[in-house]
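Team,

Forwarding the record for the chain on the shared tracking sheet. I've put the sequence and predicted structure together so nobody has to dig through attachments.
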Amino acid sequence: MRKLRNDELGRLQVSEFKSVPKIPITIILDNIRSLMNVGSVFRTSDAFIIKEIILCGITAKPPHREIQKTALGATESVEWRYEEDTLEVVKSLQNMDVNVYAIEQADKSIMLDEFEFKFNKEIAFVFGNEVKGVRQDVVEAADACIEIPQFGTKHSLNISISAAIVIWETFQQYQKSLS
Protein backbone atom coordinates (compact mmCIF):
# COMPACT_ATOMS: atom_id res chain seq x y z
CA MET A 1 0.00 0.00 0.00
CA ARG A 2 1.25 3.50 -0.79
CA LYS A 3 0.01 6.94 0.13
CA LEU A 4 -1.54 8.91 -2.70
CA ARG A 5 0.05 12.12 -3.94
CA ASN A 6 -2.11 15.24 -3.93
CA ASP A 7 -2.36 15.17 -7.73
CA GLU A 8 -3.87 11.65 -7.50
CA LEU A 9 -6.73 12.66 -5.20
CA GLY A 10 -8.99 14.05 -7.92
CA ARG A 11 -9.95 17.17 -5.98
CA LEU A 12 -11.87 20.01 -7.59
CA GLN A 13 -10.22 23.25 -8.63
CA VAL A 14 -11.67 26.36 -6.92
CA SER A 15 -13.49 27.34 -10.13
CA GLU A 16 -15.05 23.87 -10.34
CA PHE A 17 -15.99 23.95 -6.65
CA LYS A 18 -17.87 27.23 -7.16
CA SER A 19 -20.10 25.64 -9.81
CA VAL A 20 -20.95 22.26 -8.23
CA PRO A 21 -24.21 21.87 -6.28
CA LYS A 22 -23.68 22.47 -2.57
CA ILE A 23 -25.18 20.66 0.38
CA PRO A 24 -27.97 22.98 1.66
CA ILE A 25 -26.23 23.75 4.95
CA THR A 26 -25.12 27.10 6.36
CA ILE A 27 -22.60 27.28 9.19
CA ILE A 28 -22.93 30.22 11.58
CA LEU A 29 -19.93 31.03 13.77
CA ASP A 30 -21.07 32.98 16.85
CA ASN A 31 -18.20 35.00 18.36
CA ILE A 32 -15.36 32.53 17.72
CA ARG A 33 -12.10 33.79 19.25
CA SER A 34 -9.56 31.45 17.67
CA LEU A 35 -8.63 32.21 14.09
CA MET A 36 -7.35 28.66 13.72
CA ASN A 37 -10.81 27.35 14.65
CA VAL A 38 -12.31 29.62 11.98
CA GLY A 39 -9.83 28.32 9.40
CA SER A 40 -10.52 24.72 10.37
CA VAL A 41 -14.28 25.21 9.90
CA PHE A 42 -13.60 26.65 6.44
CA ARG A 43 -11.50 23.62 5.53
CA THR A 44 -14.13 21.13 6.78
CA SER A 45 -16.85 23.08 4.95
CA ASP A 46 -14.83 22.83 1.75
CA ALA A 47 -14.35 19.08 2.23
CA PHE A 48 -18.11 18.49 2.41
CA ILE A 49 -19.24 21.18 -0.08
CA ILE A 50 -21.17 23.26 2.44
CA LYS A 51 -23.25 26.10 0.97
CA GLU A 52 -22.07 29.00 3.14
CA ILE A 53 -20.39 30.18 6.34
CA ILE A 54 -21.66 33.26 8.17
CA LEU A 55 -19.15 34.86 10.52
CA CYS A 56 -20.72 36.85 13.36
CA GLY A 57 -19.68 39.16 16.18
CA ILE A 58 -15.99 39.03 17.09
CA THR A 59 -15.31 36.16 14.67
CA ALA A 60 -12.39 37.17 12.45
CA LYS A 61 -12.80 37.46 8.70
CA PRO A 62 -10.53 36.43 5.86
CA PRO A 63 -8.08 37.34 4.60
CA HIS A 64 -5.97 36.70 7.66
CA ARG A 65 -2.71 34.79 7.98
CA GLU A 66 -3.86 32.88 11.10
CA ILE A 67 -7.08 31.74 9.40
CA GLN A 68 -5.12 30.62 6.33
CA LYS A 69 -2.85 28.39 8.45
CA THR A 70 -5.69 25.92 8.89
CA ALA A 71 -8.02 26.89 6.02
CA LEU A 72 -5.30 26.17 3.44
CA GLY A 73 -7.16 28.18 0.78
CA ALA A 74 -10.71 27.13 1.67
CA THR A 75 -11.61 30.79 2.23
CA GLU A 76 -11.37 31.09 -1.56
CA SER A 77 -13.68 28.17 -2.32
CA VAL A 78 -16.39 28.32 0.38
CA GLU A 79 -18.88 31.18 0.17
CA TRP A 80 -18.84 33.32 3.29
CA ARG A 81 -20.08 36.62 4.62
CA TYR A 82 -19.88 38.64 7.80
CA GLU A 83 -22.88 39.79 9.82
CA GLU A 84 -22.58 41.63 13.13
CA ASP A 85 -25.48 40.07 15.06
CA THR A 86 -25.99 36.31 15.28
CA LEU A 87 -29.57 36.59 16.52
CA GLU A 88 -30.54 38.75 13.53
CA VAL A 89 -28.94 36.17 11.22
CA VAL A 90 -30.91 33.34 12.86
CA LYS A 91 -34.21 35.22 12.55
CA SER A 92 -33.47 36.21 8.95
CA LEU A 93 -32.71 32.61 7.97
CA GLN A 94 -35.86 31.37 9.73
CA ASN A 95 -37.87 33.97 7.78
CA MET A 96 -36.44 32.35 4.64
CA ASP A 97 -37.76 28.96 5.87
CA VAL A 98 -34.37 27.61 7.01
CA ASN A 99 -34.25 25.29 10.04
CA VAL A 100 -31.69 26.70 12.48
CA TYR A 101 -30.08 24.43 15.06
CA ALA A 102 -27.82 25.56 17.88
CA ILE A 103 -25.06 23.09 18.67
CA GLU A 104 -25.16 23.34 22.43
CA GLN A 105 -25.75 21.48 25.67
CA ALA A 106 -29.24 22.48 26.80
CA ASP A 107 -32.00 21.05 28.94
CA LYS A 108 -34.04 20.06 25.87
CA SER A 109 -31.22 19.29 23.44
CA ILE A 110 -31.46 16.29 21.14
CA MET A 111 -28.43 14.04 20.85
CA LEU A 112 -26.79 14.17 17.42
CA ASP A 113 -26.81 10.38 17.07
CA GLU A 114 -30.60 10.41 17.60
CA PHE A 115 -31.37 13.39 15.36
CA GLU A 116 -32.87 12.64 11.98
CA PHE A 117 -32.40 15.58 9.63
CA LYS A 118 -35.12 16.45 7.15
CA PHE A 119 -33.76 17.89 3.94
CA ASN A 120 -37.02 19.38 2.67
CA LYS A 121 -35.68 22.72 3.98
CA GLU A 122 -32.23 24.20 4.17
CA ILE A 123 -30.38 23.80 7.46
CA ALA A 124 -28.17 26.15 9.46
CA PHE A 125 -26.00 25.25 12.43
CA VAL A 126 -24.83 27.78 15.03
CA PHE A 127 -21.50 27.06 16.73
CA GLY A 128 -20.59 29.24 19.69
CA ASN A 129 -17.70 30.84 21.46
CA GLU A 130 -14.96 28.60 22.83
CA VAL A 131 -15.69 29.58 26.44
CA LYS A 132 -19.32 30.72 26.58
CA GLY A 133 -20.83 28.61 23.81
CA VAL A 134 -23.82 29.77 21.79
CA ARG A 135 -25.41 32.89 23.28
CA GLN A 136 -28.55 32.17 25.32
CA ASP A 137 -30.78 34.41 23.18
CA VAL A 138 -29.63 32.51 20.10
CA VAL A 139 -30.28 29.15 21.81
CA GLU A 140 -33.82 30.34 22.63
CA ALA A 141 -34.42 31.47 19.05
CA ALA A 142 -33.14 28.27 17.45
CA ASP A 143 -35.57 25.66 16.15
CA ALA A 144 -33.81 23.08 18.33
CA CYS A 145 -30.53 22.38 20.10
CA ILE A 146 -28.40 19.47 19.03
CA GLU A 147 -25.84 18.04 21.42
CA ILE A 148 -22.88 15.84 20.58
CA PRO A 149 -22.84 12.88 23.01
CA GLN A 150 -19.72 12.76 25.18
CA PHE A 151 -18.67 10.14 27.68
CA GLY A 152 -15.42 11.34 29.25
CA THR A 153 -14.60 13.88 31.93
CA LYS A 154 -14.52 17.05 29.81
CA HIS A 155 -17.67 19.07 29.37
CA SER A 156 -17.13 20.17 25.78
CA LEU A 157 -15.25 19.69 22.52
CA ASN A 158 -13.24 22.24 20.56
CA ILE A 159 -15.54 24.19 18.24
CA SER A 160 -13.72 23.07 15.09
CA ILE A 161 -14.04 19.44 16.18
CA SER A 162 -17.73 19.94 16.98
CA ALA A 163 -18.29 21.46 13.55
CA ALA A 164 -16.51 18.57 11.85
CA ILE A 165 -18.57 15.97 13.72
CA VAL A 166 -21.90 17.70 12.99
CA ILE A 167 -21.03 18.38 9.35
CA TRP A 168 -19.94 14.76 8.83
CA GLU A 169 -23.11 13.33 10.41
CA THR A 170 -25.31 15.66 8.38
CA PHE A 171 -23.37 14.91 5.19
CA GLN A 172 -23.89 11.17 5.70
CA GLN A 173 -27.63 11.62 6.28
CA TYR A 174 -27.88 13.93 3.27
CA GLN A 175 -26.12 11.40 1.01
CA LYS A 176 -28.54 8.67 2.19
CA SER A 177 -31.53 10.94 1.54
CA LEU A 178 -30.49 11.20 -2.11
CA SER A 179 -30.61 7.43 -2.69
